[in-house]
Specification:
heterotrimer; A mainly alpha (633); B mainly alpha (189); C mainly alpha (103); A: 633 residues; mainly alpha; two-stranded antiparallel sheet; 2 strands; B: globular
């Protein structure tokens, strides 16, 4: 079937780019209509992506690639272009849908902000970069967009740059992800060096790394493949906030909440997962790399989940939850289940965006992020509360919401391949359910013990422009899971092109349901309307509680082992620079100055001195001639 | 290396005496502390130089030398000294680096010139007879025939120089008295 | 006779160097002018010595020295005039206090 919409894939990122350019260049002209431009552009992109996705769902599963030459060095050619696969098409839809809803939501959330135009411009740039990243046909182009989304993330985290915390968070995010980016860059360089014809496009990579045989045929050893895969994964670790580079993501919550929803929950952080899925062929040939991915993912999942249990900042809880869920996706990828990983990415994007936007709605109303200060005051916000509840249930994995299906897909893979990871997954799921119920009950249902607040201003529901995205996302969070249930595996066939069997696993379904429900139950028991006070039970396991609350002291460890030594090194270098390098420079300069001063003193304006100098010079020249024995003439 | 031989005859003895006079006059000029003494010693040098000119069969130039240098220029200098106020002592007591360097430079220059003179062999004159029977007559002939145009130009130059000197010395005076002194003071002066 | 020429030239060189030293070191402008006269005299001595002992002895050297003397007289007259003008303006004739060249 001839593709109709696929050839317009390039237009999908171009619309947000256009919006960005208009908003940036004509800032004064379009000041009042910034939100409309933002929403409109992303809506166009969204419609187009949905059309493309539908087309691909109908029939056409061929990879659609267009390349134009970008740079050419002798026999080496770099190409620019776009590629459309089923994975791409799905990602396009995720990005544009969330982007549209966030744009709409931001119209209400950022209504009072003076720099609204800039905000929407940044979102446009980000959407463009993310879409460009998704449709990149080769690693180099992907890397360019990879960095671009990093820049957008930096700009948007630091959007309220007058806050010191926001500035610090922006810097932290940029530097931490950069550590990972270096790994990705090195991987790209190794690939460029090793690949036949220096090809960097995904199709060539897929061919070369199709199996161990083809790989050795092209002269790439297994060890090298492991290295490449690990370095690519390092990039993914940075971007997706996996342990040990996860610390930037919670801090990134200093940015505006719509941004947290769009970038730091739904799309950009998923780029790491997407990258691993996209270059999955490289990972597949290396058992070591797969093991690394799985173990890092699993560890991050449970690690972040435990931290989330003890946080008191609404957005930080969600941020750690994001880290944990990204770990889940990595776990799935590490176990070879690309479909499960991407499926979780797909469902997670909707319900996590929903949760963030819901949190934003609450924050917008009560002007605090501290859950114990909110303390049930948000219960008057009916739509927010209900949609948030749906999101929380989906995240907790309560059937039949989307989170349940995607989590189930991952857990069933883990059940089959690695029991330890299965246990980790189950524990994480339990913790997830627990902390989500804790969050929900504290924020929305608490009624008693309001002794801390003296001024209880009436809390109103957010405007429709903010609640509509919540409702849409809630619907998506409910239904998105049905594309890939244990009883229907067409999604996997469509996504990977490999015929798949159904993966119905009753034990896993029962276990995960039970775990989710018991987590919620425990949460209700402790934090529900009649629950015990937190400090009562937290005192029981105080040391552990502090450890978790302080996020396992990872930030402090980094400070101790990375920041301080670097600062000391910096000081040493500073001293070296100041006293040795600068000293030399200043010494040279002062020599020149002194020399100049000498001649200034000679130039005292007295005729006799000038005459004396000429006489001395003349005599010296004459004597020199004599001494050299050349004679005087 | 070079010829230092000195022929001892009447001419050369006379030259030696005159040379000692000339050099001593110049050196005293350097060493006297009163300016008026310096001028007088330099006048002595100029007279000695006139003697040397006579030795060189340039009687007219010697006469002019005495008239212009020993007479006119020295008197002019004395007038200059009298019209301007001078410190009584010329030299400051301490040794100045400037003086040391100047001495070094001048000595070096002299050494260079001396080596040049002594290492050059001058061709001897073909005829050793007197230059002219009557020095003044011959000079007059030369000046008013072959060198008449430079002579006339020189007279113009002298006129211009003297008028210029008067203007320079006089103009400032008038301007200053106008600027500084009131009319009544002018009257008093 | 060539040695006599060398003697005259040496005498002239000595006078020239003494004059030069005077020009370079004396503080009084009058003495500086006088030293210049001394240097001019050394030149005149050279001219006259060459007019007698030169390769082609002739009176032209003496004529030239006469012109020289006349010009030196003019120079001294202008020099003294400038000196007086300077004295009127600056109140001194010390050469080391004239540093207008500096600006």
């Amino acid at each position: 079937m001839e593709s109709v919409y696929a050839q317009y894939v390039w237009a999908v990122p171009m619309v947000p780019l256009l919006a960005f350019l208009v908003l940036t260049l004509a800032r004064c002209v379009v000041k009042g209509s910034a939100a409309f431009i933002g929403v409109g552009s992303s809506l166009i992109a969204c419609v187009l992506s949905i059309l493309i996705l539908l087309e691909r769902l109908m029939a056409n599963t061929d990879v659609y690639t267009v390349n134009v030459e970008w740079l050419s060095f002798g026999t080496v050619h770099f190409e620019l272009g776009y590629e459309l696969t089923n994975l791409n098409a799905l990602m396009l839809v995720i990005v544009t849908v969330v982007s549209t809803l966030v744009n709409l939501y931001a119209k209400g959330y950022m209504a009072d902000d003076e720099r609204q135009t800039v905000f929407f411009a940044y979102i446009g740039l980000f959407t463009f970069s993310m879409l460009g990243l998704v449709i990149s046909p080769n690693l180099l182009q992907l890397y360019v967009f990879w960095e671009l989304v990093g820049v957008c993330s930096f700009l948007l985290i630091g959007f309220w740059y007058e806050r010191p915390a926001a500035r610090a968070a922006a810097k932290k995010a940029f530097i931490m992800t950069r550590i990972g980016d270096v790994g990705l860059l090195i991987a790209i360089l190794i690939l460029f060096w090793q690949m036949p014809n220096h090809a960097l496009d995904f199709q060539s990579i897929a061919q070369v790394f199709a199996s161990v045989d083809t790989m050795s045929q092209f002269g790439i050893s297994a060890g090298l493949a492991t290295w490449i895969a690990s370095l690519i994964f390092l990039g993914a670790i940075g971007k997706s906030g996996q342990f040990p580079l996860h610390t930037w993501l919670p801090d990134a919550m200093e940015g505006p909440t719509p941004i947290s929803a769009l970038i730091h929950a739904a799309t950009m952080v998923a780029a790491g997962v997407y990258l691993v899925a996209r270059t999955f062929d490289i990972f597949q040939v290396s058992q070591t790399a797969m093991f690394i991915v799985a173990s890092v993912g699993g560890f991050t999942a449970i690690f972040a989940a435990t931290i989330a249990v003890a946080q008191r900042d609404m957005k930080r809880i969600l941020a750690y939850s994001t880290v944990s869920q990204l770990g889940y996706m990595m776990l799935a990828l590490g176990l070879g289940a690309v479909t499960a990983g991407i499926f979780h990415l797909f469902t997670h994007a909707f319900f996590k965006a929903l949760l963030f936007l819901g949190a934003g709605s609450v924050i917008h109303a009560v002007h605090t992020q501290h859950i114990f200060k909110i303390n049930g005051r948000a219960r008057h916000m009916k739509i927010t509360a209900w949609t948030f509840a749906i999101g929380a249930l989906a995240l907790s994995g309560v059937p039949p919401l989307s989170g349940f299906w995607s989590k189930d897909a991952i857990l069933s893979v883990a059940w089959e391949s690695n029991k330890l990871l299965f246990v980790i997954g189950v524990v994480t799921a339990f913790l997830t359910a627990f902390y989500m119920s804790r969050l929900f009950f504290i924020v929305f249902t608490r009624t008693k013990r309001v002794h801390t607040e003296s001024v209880d201003s009436p809390i109103h529901e957010s405007p429709a422009v903010m609640t509509i995205p919540l409702v849409v996302l809630a619907i998506l969070a409910v239904v998105a899971g049905f594309v890939y249930t244990p009883f229907y595996s067409g999604f996997e066939t469509w996504l990977t092109g490999v015929a798949a069997s159904d993966h119905t696993n009753v034990i896993v379904i029962i276990v995960s349901t039970l775990v989710a429900l018991s987590g919620i139950g425990l949460g209700y028991f402790i934090y529900g309307p009649n629950g015990v006070r937190e400090d009562q039970w937290s005192s029981v396991i105080k040391p552990l509680y502090y450890l978790v609350e302080r996020k396992y002291y990872v930030d402090e460890l980094y400070k101790l082992f990375a920041v301080y030594p670097l600062k000391v090194l910096g000081k040493v270098l500073d001293v070296f620079d100041r006293y040795i390098i600068d000293g030399l420079v200043r010494y040279t300069a002062s020599c020149t100055v002194q020399f100049g001063k000498l001649f200034t003193r000679m130039q005292n304006g007295q005729l006799q001195s000038y005459g004396l100098l000429s006489v001395c010079g003349f005599s010296a020249l004459l004597l020199l001639l004599l001494l050299l024995g050349k004679g005087l003439w | 290396m070079f010829d230092l031989s000195f022929v001892w005859n009447g001419h050369s003895i006379l030259f030696l005496i005159l040379a000692v006079c000339v050099i001593s006059g110049a050196v005293f000029m350097l060493n006297f502390s009163k300016i008026i003494h310096m001028v007088v010693s330099l006048a002595f040098t100029f007279v000695g130089l006139a003697g040397v000119y006579v030795l060189l069969e340039a009687e007219f130039v010697a006469a002019v030398q005495i008239l212009v240098y020993a007479g006119a220029i020295s008197i002019l200098m004395i007038f200059g000294i009298m019209m301007t106020k001078h410190d009584e002592l010329e030299e400051s007591p301490r040794i100045q680096w400037k003086g040391v360097f100047a001495a070094l430079g001048c000595v070096a220059l002299f050494v260079a010139i001396f080596f040049a003179i002594r290492s050059t062999s001058f061709p001897t004159a073909p005829a050793t007879g007197p230059l002219a029977e009557d020095n003044t007559l011959e000079l007059g002939k030369q000046i008013f025939t072959a060198h008449v145009i430079p002579f006339e130009l020189l007279s113009v130059l002298l006129t211009v120089a003297f008028i210029g000197a008067i203007v320079v010395a006089k103009h400032e005076d008038a301007e200053e008295s106008e600027a500084v002194s009131s009319p009544s003071q002018k009257e008093a002066e | 006779m060539s040695s006599m020429l060398a003697s005259y030239l040496t005498l002239a060189a000595i006078l020239f160097c003494i004059g030069l030293y005077g020009v370079l070191t004396k503080r009084s402008a009058v003495i500086v002018l006088l030293s210049i006269e001394l240097m001019l005299n050394a030149v005149n001595l050279n001219l006259i010595a060459f007019s007698k002992y030169g390769v082609v002895p002739s009176l032209k050297g003496q004529v030239f020295s006469l012109f020289n003397i006349a010009i030196a007289a003019a120079e001294v007259a202008v020099g003294i005039a400038i000196l007086i003008a300077l004295y009127r303006n600056r109140g001194t004739t010390n050469v080391d206090e004239f540093n207008e060249l500096r600006n």
